[in-house]
């Protein structure tokens, strides 16, 4: 446990003291750093069980930040128009996220039968789940040779030959070897990848361009219902929350008096132009 620094007139760390979110863990020139700030910093870093080294690093960063904040306030930087705007934008972002979290948290939880249906409807994610070794080629939609690339690949030309030709014309594309579990790939690509033989390539178009996956190897790694159940329930809960936020946002839009001016005017539900 991180020792509490400075409290009740004590100097130095207090060993084995119980820690609470509001407890002070450090005091810098009379300003406090709380356990809640420390916990938030860990969450932002994606750390669940920090080592002693990580704990100290996080505390040091919080101390450095507090020193910088104190200097900024001393120099009255918060009065600058651009700083005021950023502070207000940060406040609005936090409030908007808090509202969305409340709406998502109140959404109905998925039933067991929904999870079971999802399990049976997506065998590529579960019973036929694989770990793929792929050659991943990402081509931007603005690539001048895009039409020719599609023609060559659709005609059965080996991917290596197509890329060799493309490199002579244009080198603005990404070509890399990656290892991806099924759940790390776009879900809409899985049925085709599942059916693609090793050595063959599958082409996928998106709004941004084209991604080509050449299957170099595919190792079966199925997930049982018992293993998949909590994952599916968590996913369906998250999706239900997202839908609830979208629905409530649209409801608020329809009831709001929204005015857009000049070049920003465009027809939207609930808008007054």
Structural commentary:
This protein is an alpha+beta fold. Among the domains are: 4-75, no CATH class; 130-220, Chitinase A, domain 3, CATH 3.10.50. Helix content is 46%, strand content 19%. The protein has 8 helices and 10 strands. The protein has helices at residues 35-45, 52-74, 81-105, 112-121, 146-154, 159-169, 190-195, 225-255, and strands at 4-5, 13-14, 24-28, 31-34, 130-140, 174-181, 201-205, 209-220, 258-259, 271-272. A 4-stranded antiparallel β-sheet has the order 6-5-8-7. A hairpin with a 7-residue loop joins strand 1 and strand 2. Helix 3 (81-105) packs across helix 8 and helix 4 (112-121) packs across helix 8. The longest helix has 31 residues, at 225-255.
* Biggest sheet statistics: 4 strands, antiparallel
The strand order across the widest sheet is: 6-5-8-7
The low-confidence runs, each spanning 5 or more residues with pLDDT under 50, are 1-18
Structural class: alpha+beta
Order of helices and strands: EEEEHHHHEHHEHEEHEE
CATH class group of the domain at 130-220: Alpha Beta
Approximate helicity band: 40-55%
Average pLDDT figure = 85
Count of individual beta strands: 10
CATH architecture of the domain at 130-220: Roll
Question: In the CATH scheme, what's the topology name of the domain at 130-220?
Answer: Chitinase A, domain 3
Gross morphology: extended
How much of the sequence lies in strands comes to 15-25%
First-residue to last-residue Cα separation: 58 Å
The number of distinct helices, counting runs of at least 4 residues, comes to 8
Which radius of gyration do the C-alpha atoms yield?
Answer: 27 Å
């Amino acid at each position: 446990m991180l020792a509490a620094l400075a409290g009740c007139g004590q100097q130095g760390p207090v060993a084995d003291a119980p820690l609470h979110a509001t407890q002070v863990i450090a005091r810098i020139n009379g300003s406090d750093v709380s356990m809640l700030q420390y916990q938030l910093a860990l969450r932002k870093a994606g750390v669940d069980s920090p080592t002693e080294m990580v704990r100290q690093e996080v505390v040091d960063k919080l101390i450095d930040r507090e020193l910088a904040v104190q200097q900024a306030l001393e120099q009255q930087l918060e009065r600058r128009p651009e700083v005021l705007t950023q502070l207000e934008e940060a406040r609005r972002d936090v409030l908007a996220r808090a509202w969305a979290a409340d709406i998502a948290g109140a959404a109905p939880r998925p039933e067991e039968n929904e999870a079971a249906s999802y399990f049976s409807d997506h065998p590529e994610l579960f019973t036929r789940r694989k770990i793929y070794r792929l050659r991943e080629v990402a081509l931007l939609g603005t690539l001048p040779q895009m039409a020719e690339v599609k023609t060559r690949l659709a005609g059965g030309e080996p991917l290596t030959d197509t890329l060799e030709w493309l490199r002579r014309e244009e080198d603005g594309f990404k070509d890399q070897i990656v290892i991806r579990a099924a759940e790390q790939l776009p879900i809409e690509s899985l049925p085709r990848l599942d059916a693609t033989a090793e050595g063959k390539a599958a082409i996928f178009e998106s709004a941004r361009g084209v991604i080509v996956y050449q299957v170099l190897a595919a190792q079966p790694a199925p997930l049982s219902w018992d293993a998949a159940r909590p994952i599916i329930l968590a996913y369906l809960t998250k999706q239900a929350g997202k839908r609830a936020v979208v629905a409530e946002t649209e409801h608020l839009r329809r009831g709001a008096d929204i005015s857009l001016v000049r070049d920003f005017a465009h027809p939207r539900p609930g808008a007054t132009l």
